[in-house]
Design brief:
disordered N terminus, 429 residues
């Protein structure tokens, strides 16, 4: 195959724009209140939440963010996260309205498949006597019309409509009054009834399959799971047998806490996983950490890789744009007196220490390869270019106006780029 550079120069737009319909594994229903007159005052936002859980990944919470002109002064989104069940419970977020604050945004937040209910929202702000007193908000108990001005799907300024979440006002067992907010989802990958498990390399890996044809394996990024590919699975499965895998410790897959987490270890997991489900070789599409795992697969287990798409990967930590920021996070963790195992912490530690490859190592890759990154990526552009240059006859796509989260934020151009590459692979064989 003749090597060429593929660089799109057109103007791209993100799918998550004001008023646009999107498909994703979370949604928010929110409103905002002007708080410029309350600078320096304490506040408290509360709400009642319950849910019918359909998988371990079903999560609901309350969230609050206070905006200022050039960012935000306060943000918290985990009140209730992991604590919500079928019975109504109240959750609260408290804080202080700092200088330069403009709006206080709050609302309901849901992740993954489930049946979620919210009711009795309340905002209190400190008065001149030092007491927290209620401040008027719109339709706090969802007794009015769903189309009433005030509440919107999205994150206030960034409004959107999710095609895979259904939002309604429900009369089923409200916390207070006659109705509550109901948010439902049942088609988000990573939480489907067709999911399966296999035991390999000391862990239990979860996966889902879609479509028919040549096998195409999707490998997600660092803190992600199968649902990261919510905008790819339906499209790719029209032409391929899509296999979406939760890497160890993510999604529904297990972790061995006594074993150091590395990309080489996960590449071995993936190879053994493919062996276990009877796949001799597959097209590999890896995003971020998944792209690193794909590169290692193509080097160490070439027989398993028909072709490789590696999106936003690095071959050593210095390829990251903000390596120092990650090191600071780990340094803060190390100052804590009591330390419990945290997959989040382990994932960050892995990024600052691994992978430890060299560009010249990539010259052993023989599979047709496409290297992709956004021009605003978290991987240095020069690093991405050198990866492509090290792989004989690889193709390179640096896509303008896109970032590290391209498969989510710009799925159309990402999907078209991948499918176009896979077509060239099939033609050349």
């Amino acid at each position: 195959m003749k090597r060429f550079i593929l660089i799109f120069i057109g103007v791209l737009t993100s799918t998550i724009l004001h008023g646009k319909e999107v498909k994703q594994d979370w949604t928010s229903y929110a409103q905002s209140v002007n708080v410029k007159q309350y600078i320096g005052k304490r506040f408290a936002v509360s709400a009642a939440i319950r849910m019918r859980k359909v998988s371990p990944a079903s999560k609901a919470s309350l969230w609050v963010r206070i905006d200022k002109n050039d960012g935000y002064n306060f943000f918290k989104n985990d009140a209730g996260y992991g604590k919500v069940d079928e019975d109504w419970k109240h959750f609260k977020i408290e804080g202080v309205i700092q200088e330069e604050s403009s709006t206080l945004n709050f609302g309901a937040l849901c992740f993954n498949n489930g049946d979620y209910f919210f009711d009795d929202f309340e905002l209190k702000i400190e008065n001149d006597s030092g007491q927290l007193v209620p401040v008027e908000i719109k339709n706090e108990g969802f007794e009015g019309s769903k189309n009433e001005e005030g509440w919107n799907e999205g994150i206030v300024k960034r409004k959107f409509t999710t095609s895979n979440f259904k939002i309604s006002y429900s009369s089923e067992n409200p916390y207070k009054g006659n109705f509550s907010l109901r948010i439902q989802a049942d088609s988000i990958p990573g939480n489907m009834k067709n999911g399966k498990y296999v035991k390999v390399n000391g862990v239990r890996l979860y996966y889902e399959e879609y479509g028919e044809g040549e096998p195409l394996l999707l490998i997600h990024g660092n803190g992600q799971s199968i649902s990261a590919f919510i905008n790819q699975i339906d499209i790719f499965s029209k032409k391929y047998r899509v296999i979406a895998l939760d890497s160890r410790g993510r999604g529904n897959s297990s972790i061995n806490e006594s074993e150091q987490l590395t990309y080489t270890l996960q590449a071995k997991d993936t190879k053994l996983f493919l062996d276990k489900i009877g796949i001799e070789s597959a097209h590999i599409v890896g995003w971020s950490d998944g792209g690193i795992i794909g590169l290692i697969l193509a080097m160490k287990y070439p027989e398993k890789v028909k072709s490789l798409v590696s999106m936003a990967a690095n071959v050593f930590p210095e390829g990251l744009v903000d390596l120092d920021g990650l090191k600071e996070i780990v340094a803060k963790e190390d100052t804590k007196k009591t330390k419990k195992y945290s997959i989040g912490s382990e994932l960050i530690r892995m990024m600052i220490h691994y992978p430890q490859l060299k560009f010249e190592d990539l010259s052993t890759i023989k599979a047709p390869t496409l290297i992709i990154a956004g021009d605003k990526d978290q991987i240095k552009t020069s690093h991405t270019v050198k990866i492509s240059e090290a792989i004989k006859e690889s193709q390179l796509a640096i896509l303008p106006n896109t970032d590290h989260y391209m498969p989510r934020s710009s799925p159309k151009i990402f999907n078209e780029t991948v499918l176009r590459f896979l077509e060239t692979v099939n033609i050349s064989r």
